[in-house]
Write a structure and sequence with these properties.
disordered N terminus; 11-stranded mixed sheet; 601 residues
Length: 601
């Protein structure tokens, strides 16, 4: 559990910079924009009116489904009720319920946002963004990090961002929540994939309405980062998402599905530690019903299905996110033990949510590579896959084993070599899982419209005694300000070592992303003057991915680099810096079916 806490603290470090930038830009509630009548648009549910921002019309907080509250908790999203009076859409909708240190958000959270140029040009490509945060935190707002104004203004696209249900409200399956087969929404309601269904509902809203906002419903590109990248890949394999989008970009993504038995059963019967049955046990104990899992399980088993469903839906949101045991022990009193030589964060088996192999919303086959090998089992479209060079730095940034800290804030690295060794294999594995292995399969199963990238940039200035380039350079999520062009947050925080070079790199990345949205091929960017981004190749001697970095560190260039499961295993075996026990541990975590080769000695 400590690894998860460190992960989210690292995420909040960058998120904090984004919030600081957001406050400096908008100045608080007194900067709420005024409605502009020229932005009046009709949606299939009713009229909305937004505001204008430097040549871009903006609509924030447009509802796309009924609030999933009361009887609609743990149900597929439902169609909105109609309204006649123009609805002001000038503020982001509430974020969905979430919590690490404290619970925040509102179950009434299914809102989306639209940015579109004010010019009356031809219909524009739509870029549909899915935020990250492990599917347990985050929102389409994120302190302005995902503000689409600059992207829409520069590259003639309509940018859409969304909120979707998170954590146990987004992905959760309990046998007693099932509705009878034959009910109108039975297959969706019983899937457990409510966050996935929210994304699909938002894509359906785009198909029905985006033309009124200047967008082309026949040219929709979905893109997302981290969990958002996982959710992009879930759209790729979901039969319900077919024809709702036409291109896909997965940034630091991947995909893993969990079978329904593991998601529902007691742990003693093969279920996950946070399965539906185990979650019900936890909630019963939190409310004083059962002193231990055995007692709460007996109570649960004696309840009727209606009683279980009523109990779950009546439970306060804050309780859903409350740990069973709240350890008040301070960090100073906690023993700091050496971490494993490899730190990988991928949602964690023992912490919800998991995307579920229900057989309707998502495939029943949990082997994603088998699914992607058969064009009949997934939605084949042009696709871009990418990762950052040092993904897992972000998830070790607050680990006291590696850093000297004052008041919980890292001020220097204890041992640079150990720090880099710790994040090395996690980052390689992330690239293999989310990029190279998927690209290699798709190269054979669909047209060669597969593109890959690696984000290497890390030119952060030193902060006091802390070398930010070493600590965070090339880390997970660091490409986001570059993709959206919102480098203001890094500039305001005074962490950019070279603002002009960073802006040049950001402009290049935005141009590639936009050209991909327009044509399905990033090529030489919108200007046609950038380095040619060639498609993926499985041929050994050919280039297969583009690398993004500043000119002083190699620039934007194509590379033959290939990181797959076999190459990682070979590197582990040959790594003289690793002891035999560490090699065995690594192989068991990454490739349990191959670990005998390493662990036998």
């Amino acid at each position: 559990m400590k690894k998860v806490v460190f992960s989210f603290l690292g995420f909040f470090l960058i998120l904090g910079l984004a919030i600081f930038w957001y406050i400096s830009r908008f100045g608080g509630d007194d900067q709420i924009p005024e409605v502009v009548e020229e932005t009046l648009r009709e949606t299939h549910s009713g009229p909305v009116v937004g505001f204008s921002d430097e040549g871009v019309n903006v609509w924030l907080g447009i509802p796309y489904a009924k609030p999933p509250i009361g009887d609609l908790r743990w149900r597929a999203p439902r169609e909105l009720d109609q309204w006649d009076t123009p609805k002001p859409t000038i503020e982001f909708g509430d974020e969905c319920p979430q919590g690490m240190m404290a619970v925040s958000g509102n179950e009434d959270c299914l809102y989306l946002n639209v940015w579109s140029q004010t010019s009356d040009s031809a219909t524009k490509p739509v870029m549909f963004f899915i935020h990250g945060g492990g599917n347990v935190i985050g929102s389409a707002n994120a302190g302005g990090l995902y503000d689409g104004q600059r992207f829409a203004a520069m590259h003639d696209v309509v940018l859409v961002s969304i909120n979707y249900r998170l954590g146990p409200l987004g992905w959760f399956s309990h046998p007693d929540l099932k509705v009878a087969e034959g009910s109108p929404f039975a297959a969706k309601d019983n899937s457990g994939n409510y966050g996935t269904l929210d994304i699909i509902a938002a894509l359906e809203w785009v198909q029905k309405n985006i033309s009124a906002f200047g967008g082309d419903p026949e040219n929709v590109t979905i893109f997302g980062e981290s969990a958002g990248g996982w959710n992009v890949m879930s759209m790729v394999v979901s039969p319900l998402a077919a024809d709702l989008y036409h291109k896909a970009i997965a940034q630091s993504g991947g995909l893993r599905l969990v079978d329904m038995n593991s998601a529902e059963r007691y742990a003693a019967n093969g279920g996950l530690p946070r399965s539906g049955r185990e979650e019900m046990n936890r909630l019963l104990q939190l409310q004083g019903q059962g002193a231990n899992p055995k007692e709460s399980a007996a109570i649960q088993d004696a309840m009727t299905s209606d009683e279980v469903a009523s109990f779950l839906r009546a439970t306060e949101v804050s309780t859903l996110f409350e740990p069973l045991e709240n350890n008040p022990q301070s960090e100073q009193d906690t023993e700091v033990t050496e971490p494993a030589p490899f730190i990988l964060w991928s949602g964690m088996d023992d912490v919800p949510p998991n995307l579920l192999a229900d057989g309707h919303v998502l495939p029943r086959n949990t082997d994603i590579f088998e699914v992607l090998a058969d064009p009949k089992q997934f939605n084949a479209t042009p696709i871009m896959l990418g990762s950052n060079k040092h993904e897992t730095k972000l998830f070790t940034v607050m680990n006291p084993w590696f850093t000297q800290r004052i008041f919980g804030i890292p001020v220097s690295l204890k041992d640079r070599d150990k720090y880099f060794q710790s994040v090395k294999y996690g980052s390689l594995y992330w690239k293999a899982l989310g990029v190279d292995e998927i690209a290699s399969v798709l190269y054979d199963s669909q047209e060669p419209s597969v593109f890959a990238y690696r984000f290497d940039w890390g030119n952060l200035r030193n902060f006091l005694t802390l070398n930010l380039r070493d600590l965070l350079g090339g880390a997970h999520a660091l490409e986001l300000p570059f993709v959206f062009g919102n480098l203001d947050l890094l500039e305001t925080a005074l962490v950019l070592a070279d603002q002009e070079a960073a802006r040049d790199l950001s402009d290049s990345m935005m141009s590639y992303w936009a050209e991909f949205a327009h044509t399905g091929d990033p090529s030489k960017g919108r200007s046609g003057e950038l380095a040619l981004w060639e498609s993926w190749s499985n041929e050994q001697a050919e280039v297969r991915q583009i690398v993004f970095d500043e000119a002083a560190y190699g620039g934007v260039r194509m590379s033959r680099d290939l990181v797959n499961f076999d190459s990682i295993m070979a590197e582990v075996i040959a790594d003289e810096a690793l002891e035999a026990t560490a090699k065995c541990e690594l192989s068991r975590r990454m490739f349990p079916h191959l670990s005998a080769e390493v662990c036998s000695g």
